[in-house]
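## retry 2 of 3
previous attempt timed out at serialization; input unchanged, resubmitting
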Amino acid sequence: MRRFLSVTAVIVCVSLFAAIASGATITFSATLTPEQEIPAPVLNGTTPSGMATATLDTVARTVQFMLDWQGLTSMAIGAHIHRINPMAATPGTGPITVNFLMFTDPPMQPADSLSGTVSIDNATVANLIAGLGAGDMYFNVHTENNRPGEIRGNIAAVPEPGAIGLLGGGLVALLTLKRRRR
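## retry succeeded, writing output
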């Protein structure tokens, strides 16, 4: 009977984890600072900073985003998600994966915010998922004075509340099973 309960508990935990892991959305965020920027920006005494959050919907193939920044040295001319390319001429940098503010759009103020939803294709969805899993994605805000980028934030996935509860429940189940075996 104990073995049956143990196997049942494992099956339930695995099933719940699979259901959450196959969810259609992935939320990720970053704090944007000049210290993370490569190459280092010329700041002329300013202290720019920002926050960025985005949600990838793998079914609808969209990225909903919100970026806030302040203290930039000049007008913002670009805002994107990049993926680090290990073969890049400048280590730690990479090509644009998702555009929020393109260099051809009208510039934005040194203290501003940008939000919206962009449509992406299947290849970009796959690139984002792989990049998030590898930890090599970053938000970047480019300015007139610092065209390679003025503030950057390396992206960290935000765990869904259900995943945190599932993890806690799984740990309790494992501890209970371990305790019963003694």
